[in-house]
Amino acid sequence: KTVIRALSADVAFIVRQRADDGVADLVAAEGVGVADFRRLESRIAKSSLWRMFELSKPLAIDDVGTDRALDFLAFGTQTRFLVAVPVSVKGKTVGMVAAGFRGGSRVEENRVVRVLGAYASVIAQAMLVERMMDAANRKLAEENLHLKQELRQKYDLSQLIGNSGAMRVALDQVTQIARSNSTVLLRGEHGTGKELIAGAIHYNSLRSKRSFVKLNCSDVPDALIENEIFGSDKK
To answer: Residue 162: helix, strand or coil by DSSP?
Structure first.
């Protein structure tokens, strides 16, 4: 809407090129209906404006009706004159911002290019920030996945060493319990591997994607242990 108000345009839209397959992604559009929005997204890659990704410079269509890919705009919105400027990120054209005007409108093309260029700079900054955030999120997701894989490997049942009858019984119990939602109480002297068994139960269960929370009861006052483990009932 701000582009339309700034230029007294009838149609405005922002398009970016998808990185995966090179087709158009219509980010926003104003002055077109739902049907024309869908047509614009599906056809603009076949229009003369798409050369912008090769030329990296502003382009104009004097008569939209002569462009077979965009001629529907001439009938649906009476748009005749269309101007578009590139949106560039790190020297590469990744999208465009365009404004269209009806036939008979008095349009100063150089001014339209300057105004659209200012909007393109703002859009480019937003796209750059979005890319940086996406990259950071992907890195966090990869690190999280790697950490989970390490934890699964650490607590894999094969890591529990022991061949005695009691140990085999314990491993069988861990395998059975991990498949259930039963509450488990592990007892044993200090250093016998209770935490290792607890981790093995968690990371071999259906809850393995959730957090494994450890609580050292010796660090919590007796009066608060029940609240820490079971929560409190607000009355």
So the answer is: coil
